[in-house]
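dumping this here so i dont lose it
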């Protein structure tokens, strides 16, 4: 079957640590035929030796040795699979809270997400608690612009496939999703067991009360996102390689605009420019790349050490906007005490990270109505929405959310926790 004609979607799998993300996706890949049985059997043998037979599916994704031994996901795993309608690149985000940073990078490239929530006694509750990552990931996914979601209510085997428990989890998650702004009525909630394969490829006899589709069919309910090809070109850089015989090859995802071979491009903030000699996506040469494409492109006239992760490529006649300050509208997701001006955590925007100072608290906003609750507040707290002037420690590319939403949303983190997320409403351009 030709996969070329199918539209391509980047899917991120999110959810609280140990809720079964890797296992469930490993199972999906197996059921779809994207991994062959021999590999699963190989993993099974190895897992048995460690006395962890049930890890075999997760290992499809958790390929790194260290991850295997510790049984958790550290880096983002990339995998491809096809459904009837789409070609997916799967991003398996780690649930462990130290790794939310990677999750942010993963989520910022995703078109859609699958949220995995364990129905197991105590696990669902831990995930939606204020410190839980079910809550954190849902919030980040929405802030990072992922508007399409499916939910797998996993480990149904541990609760006897109880309809009551399913409804309890579904209702709780629905409340959370509605709060951050998802249209819940459009979201499928599929009861699954990654271990036993319920409702993954076939509707399970264990859940006769469930009237929805299988998980694999739910993937086809996603809609193809709009591709902003008429916007200025923006490619946040993830990595830069120097390939012998080819030259400098930056790698990233086209967020907006179109990149063509022969284009003159500039990398900001460093302000180095060059000419595009070739473009590749998944080892295939292409003449042009459009939004959503993950590409590597060879640029003549640019040296590997002149550019780095976090820089953004654009056309020389419409370069990415570099700022020394910007104003953001944020929501404070988590903070143990209170935030005052002067606080300097870390800014994550597209692929860039830099320390950032809360330079001025401009307004406190009522998160429900959007109305101004207080001018120039002395501090803001968990649960508050606010307008804040930010001063990054070094110049960084951001765009106004209204103009280029893909480069206008950001997260604020401190000591491994997401403090806030928001959108850029104004900026101070560096000339
Ligand atoms: P991180 O990547 O570390 O966030 O975890 P994860 O969400 O990927 O979870 P993982 O797939 O590693 O599974 C965590 C544990 O739950 C493992 O011991 C799995 O075998 C187990 N598990 C996963 N799915 C199911 C399921 O459907 N039923 C039961 N009973 N256990 C499951
Ligand atoms: Mg995992």
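and the seq i came up w/
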């Amino acid at each position: 079957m030709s996969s070329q004609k199918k539209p391509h979607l980047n899917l991120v799998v999110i959810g609280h640590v140990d809720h079964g993300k890797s296992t469930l996706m490993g199972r999906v890949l197996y059921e779809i035929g994207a991994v062959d049985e021999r590999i699963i059997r190989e993993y099974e043998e190895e897992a048995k030796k460690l006395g962890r037979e049930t890890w075999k599916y997760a290992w499809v994704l958790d390929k790194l040795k260290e991850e295997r031994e510790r049984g958790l996901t550290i880096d983002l795993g990339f995998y491809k699979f096809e459904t009837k309608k789409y070609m997916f690149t799967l991003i398996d985000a780690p649930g462990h809270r130290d790794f939310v940073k990677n999750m942010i990078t993963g989520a910022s490239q995703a078109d859609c997400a699958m949220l995995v929530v364990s129905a197991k006694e105590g696990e669902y509750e831990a995930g939606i608690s204020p410190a839980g990552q079910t809550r954190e990931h849902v919030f980040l996914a929405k802030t990072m612009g992922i508007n399409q979601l499916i939910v797998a209510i996993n480990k149904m085997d541990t609760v006897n496939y109880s309809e009551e428990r399913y409804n309890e989890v579904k209702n709780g998650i629905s409340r959370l999703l509605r709060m951050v702004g998802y249209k819940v009525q459009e979201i499928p909630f599929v009861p699954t067991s990654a271990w036993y394969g319920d409702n993954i490829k076939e509707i399970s006899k264990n859940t006769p009360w469930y009237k929805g589709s299988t998980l694999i069919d739910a993937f086809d309910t996603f809609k193809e996102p709009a591709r902003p090809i008429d916007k200025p070109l923006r490619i946040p850089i993830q990595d830069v390689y120097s390939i012998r015989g080819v030259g400098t090859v930056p790698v990233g995802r086209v967020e907006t605009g179109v990149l063509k071979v022969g284009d003159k491009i500039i990398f900001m903030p460093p302000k180095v420019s060059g000419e595009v000699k070739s473009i590749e996506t998944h080892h295939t040469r292409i003449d042009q790349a459009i939004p959503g494409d993950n590409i590597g492109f060879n640029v003549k006239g640019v040296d590997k050490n002149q550019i780095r992760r976090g820089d953004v490529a654009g056309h020389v006649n419409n370069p990415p906007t570099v700022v020394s300050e910007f104003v953001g509208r944020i929501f404070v997701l988590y903070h143990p005490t209170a935030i005052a001006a002067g606080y300097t955590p870390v800014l994550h925007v597209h692929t860039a990270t830099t320390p950032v100072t809360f330079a001025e608290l401009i307004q406190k906003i009522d998160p429900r109505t959007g109305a101004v609750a207080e001018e120039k507040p002395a501090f803001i707290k968990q649960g508050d929405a606010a307008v804040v002037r930010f001063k990054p420690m070094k110049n960084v590319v951001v765009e106004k959310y209204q103009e280029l939403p893909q480069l206008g949303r950001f997260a604020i983190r401190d000591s491994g926790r997401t403090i806030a997320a928001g959108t850029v409403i104004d900026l101070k351009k560096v000339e």
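The chain is about 20% helix and 35% strand.
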